Amino acid sequence: MKSRCSGFLGLIFGIVLIFGMTPATSADTIKIGVAAPFTGSAAAYGDNIYDGLSLKLKEINDAGGVNGDKIKLVKGDDLCEAKDAGNVASKFATDKSIVAVIGHVCSSATLAGMPIYVRAKIPVISATSTNSIIGKEAGKGWFFRNCYIDDYQGAFLAAYVKKVLELKQIGVFYENNDYGIGLKKTFVEEAKKLGIKIIGTEGYMKGATDFSPQLTKLKAGKPDGIFICGYYQEGGLIAGQARKLGLNIALFGADGLDNEDYIKIGGKAADGTYCTVPFLAAVAGPEAKSVIDAFKAKTGRDIDWMAANAYDCLGILADVIAKVGADRQKIRDGLAGYNSLEKAYNGLTGATFFDKNGDCSKPAAVKMVKNGKFVPAQQMQ
């Protein structure tokens, strides 16, 4: 009897291997890919994203999961680079147990990954990728985001500079990537409409460390403000070198500067920097307090917009899956169903709903660095 049972079990095991069946325990797990830079120079972004996701993950799973199934997050390290993003996208797309992807963080990475996701028909929701053409051209109906786009952000910054900071002559310093170029284009167009003089535009490459030649050129135009269209790593260095050259003027940027490492890199030179953000904890409503407090207790730092948006991304996916099930096509269709304020997902960052491109409309807030800390700046009415 023992030998017969062994033979039968061996046959079953062989069938499992041949047909690639997964153990029954996998049926009670919903896998969601998380594409972000977890190593490399942009790892602080990945940490923020994952901290926000982890907080929401615990909340969901502690409450019993989604329809009784626990959610599992699967990391994919894209280093904020297009090549690595393609590798991560291929890994997620071919893993049929992954039903959706949260990511990527950087717009260039998202643009690189989207053709792969579209072919595999796997829905993607990004908490942070703001480049305007992702939804319009690359998403093909499979991309969604709960952050505003650069067309809006760039125009908002121009209006803020004009109406609140009352600056008249601006030098533009942009990183030569999809994010930086998109911001520069929209800002410059709107600034000119508002009568702001653009005294010069200078580009730089990711990983650069010496910005004095470009800053010297911009200084010659006598700007009263410099727009840094890029991320915190180079942004902190630019702030320090600008101050050394005597450019004791307003510095401002978009959400890419919103990281505590910007202050660590720039030191005292970071003071007087303004940046736009989709979410600002200090001005959030009272209903957000419990999440803000829980994040602080867990991480020891204030929640930033990336973590807050990521928290809501997982909440949105969990809400959709609870309604339609853990199926890629049904999840995509469910996300597309959040298409009006009345049908929006109401989360930490407010009401989220999507247009035909998967883009959402959310207001911008402004924060600034003062005495070595990010604090709320004067908001534009």
Give a written overview of the molecule.
By secondary structure, the protein is α/β, with parallel strands linked by helices. Helices cover 45% and strands 19% of the residues. It contains 13 helices and 14 strands. It has a 7-stranded mixed beta sheet, with helices on both faces. Helix 2 links the parallel strand 1 (29-36) and strand 2. Helix 9 (232-244) runs parallel beside helix 10 (260-266). It is globular and about 65 Å long. The chain starts with a helix and ends in a 5-residue tail after the last strand.
Short description:
This protein is 45% helix and 19% strand.
Provide the fold topology:
Elements: H1 2-19, E1 29-36, H2 43-62, E2 70-77, H3 82-94, E3 98-102, H4 107-120, E4 124-126, H5 133-138, E5 143-145, H6 150-163, E6 169-175, H7 178-193, E7 197-204, H8 212-220, E8 225-229, H9 232-244, E9 250-253, H10 260-266, E10 273-277, H11 289-299, H12 305-324, H13 328-336, E11 345-347, E12 350-352, E13 365-370, E14 373-376
List its traits.
381 residues, alpha/beta, seven-stranded mixed sheet, five-stranded parallel sheet, 13 helices, 19% strand, disordered N terminus
Helix content: 40-55%
- Overall morphology: globular
**Runs with pLDDT <50, length 5+?**
1-26
Helix tally equals 13
Instruction: Let me know the average pLDDT.
Output: 91
- What percent of residues are in strands? 15-25%
Question: How many runs of DSSP E, i.e. beta strands?
Answer: 14
Radius of gyration: 23 Å
What is the helix/strand order?
HEHEHEHEHEHEHEHEHEHEHHHEEEE
- The N- and C-terminal alpha carbons lie at a distance of 81 Å
**Main β sheet profile:** 7 strands, mixed
**Category from helices, strands and their pairing:** alpha/beta
Strand order of the largest sheet: 7-6-8-9-10-13-14
